[in-house]
Amino acid sequence: MKKALVCGAGGFIGSHMVKRLKKEGYWVRGVDLKNPPYAKTEADDFVIGDLRDPYICKELLSLKFDEVYQFAADMGGAGFVFVGDNDYDIMHNSAAINLNVLEACRLSGSKRIFYSSSACMYPEFNQLDPDNPNLSENSAYPAQPDSDYGWEKLFSERLYLAAARNKGLEVRVARYHNIFGEEGSWFDGREKAPAAICRKIAIANDGDQIEIWGDGEQTRSFLYVDECIEATIRLTRSEWTGPVNIGSDEMVSINQLANMIMGIAKKTVILKHIPGPLGVRGRNSDNRLFEEKLGWRVSQKLIDGLQTTYPWILNQVEVHGKDIGK
Question: What is the largest CA-CA distance in the chain?
Fold first, then answer.
């Protein structure tokens, strides 16, 4: 039986990866600071542990794993990343995790390791035009991320790639673009735009106002979590290191995203645009390199993922009460 370690298995993407690996018959060890908040983990062995501690990492990797998935990071949406209050923790915690996990993999002989980087590592100057962002993989340098979260991701990419060159590890690196779906953050200040807008519309009545940061014309693409997991596994089991984008190339404005969710909810609300943390003006996944190297492309439409995600968040609102996370 093949064995896999999922770091960050209590989080959104990590918990979905555990489920996928179990369906494939893997023995799975998961680790996180907390259990998954919305469903019992399916991991065979789930460890509550702090990956900033090198001893914990070495203990976790006392087994030799066929695949290691490194999702653990101090992260969140714009309301967490771009406010400036969390920069030290974001950089220190995530860098420490990656340094420790990589070294423990090297010592244990667990060679095949996937690292989830982020589109936030791309230069800000390539993302000023909301209609024409440039996020091809070769546009990463000269570097100028718009946040310390992006700078840490860029550092960690280079760390993993150096381990591949110098230490014989079979590293795979992907740059994620706005992954969304059920069982993700939706009210705790770390949620991203799809979850936040789903929550606001779920709470609202017809004709109510909901707040949108900025003018709503900033653009993004959003990838449903199941397609993210599929792309991640395909990359990890390929013979190519990356880095490569994993995201949707269906670009929408935040106003358009809100209108799509209104349609699903069968509600009409008024968008009240207010000042707030925004990030870059335009971002969209360039998927040409992934398709060339792996012969596969993401195919699910944004609306299809939202039609699954909105009812899940609506149910959370109904369970926890409409006063939460307004």
Answer: 60
CB 239 within 8 A of CB 295: no
Report if residue 292 sits inside a domain.
Answer: no
| Domain span including residue 230 | 3-179+222-246
State pLDDT tens for residues 125-174: 999 999 999 999 999 999 999 999 999 999 999 999 999 999 999 999 99
Of 90-99, 118-127, 313-322, the range with the lowest mean pLDDT is: 313-322
Query: Would 293 be classed as within a structural domain?
Result: no
Count of domains forming the chain: 2
Residues 240 and 114: their CA atoms lie apart, in Å, by: 11
Residues 145 and 102 in one domain: yes
**Using only C-alpha atoms, what is the Rg of the chain?**
19
Which segments of the chain are extended strands (E)?
A: 3-7, 27-32, 45-48, 67-70, 112-118, 170-176, 179-180, 209-213, 219-220, 223-224, 244-246, 252-253, 270-274
Indicate if 149 belongs to the active site: yes
- 274 and 140, same domain (yes or no): no
Angstrom CA distances, 256 to 25, 70, 253, 265, 269, stand at 40, 33, 5, 14, 13
CA distance 69 to 198: 29
Q: How far apart are CA 43 and CA 17, in angstroms?
A: 10
- In the set 26, 115, 149, 224, the catalytic residue is 149
pLDDT digits (tens, 9 = 90+) for 98-112: 999 999 999 999 999
